[in-house]
Amino acid sequence: MPSGDFPPYALKRDFQLPGADDSYAVFDFLLDGRVISSDGTAISLERTTGSATFDLVRVGLKGYSAFIRICPSELIACHDGDQLLIFNTSSPAGGSRIPFSSGYDAEWADDNLLLVTIPTRVVAVDVRTNQVVPVVDGIRGAPAGVTLDSQGNLYTGNGLDTNPDLTSVTGTVKFFPAADWRQALQRRMPLNFEETGTPIAEVLSAAYLGFDTYGHLHVSGSNPAGADQGFAALIEANAVTSAIQGGPIITDASPADVLYRFDPDNSAQKFYFINDNAATAELYLKDFNKQKVFVYG
Length: 297
Description:
The two termini are 16 Å apart. Strand 2 (26-29) and strand 3 form a beta hairpin. The protein is mostly beta strands. It contains 2 helices and 28 strands.
């Protein structure tokens, strides 16, 4: 349920992730709230929730991880160059490898199905069989974030508009009902991004989409061609529902009670990675190529 106050956060603390400050680290959370991160060369796990003390649990990665994501059974998917590493917390150095040439963001649909954004599409990866099936296609721009709400509805976007004749632009976020994308998966007939789905927002570059404890939608990225850069955004839950039902699309010009801007770091890059820690009801933000994480709660 939405909080009575928006946003329901204040800056609480900051800490450093493992790795060099010029590396790009991504992170997610175990069910108990501990951080697990990859800087592209190694995977580290927080010793206790909120301690900011990390232990190396896997080394020898190939140099770049676009994402690391954990499902409810704590199976972990980590992008590693040209493959996906699939492993669990009890055996972080083991698991399986799935050949996978590219990826931008991911979200677990259940304990076996991983949704991944790649150029032009969202695909579903069955980690039991290694089968890859497109569920949304025709994204005529760069890949963006992908997430599911509590009802299993899918949200994804256009990360960079490469064709001015399209209906979508950089930062367009679209809503796809659970029944529609599940049917597309079953029939192996992907939904067309430009022709289907409901546009709900045009914010930043539609990166690192996700829902917080209160049902608010977080968005990040950067649109250097416009005013959408230098912050991460939180979109109020009722505004998301209204847009799905045909109400106003949320943009960077939306009022602060609809779209809140986080900008805790005055660095030059200003491309934030953002993620929600469900166990602690906190938001974690970090600049794209720095290891300092800001915690809001």
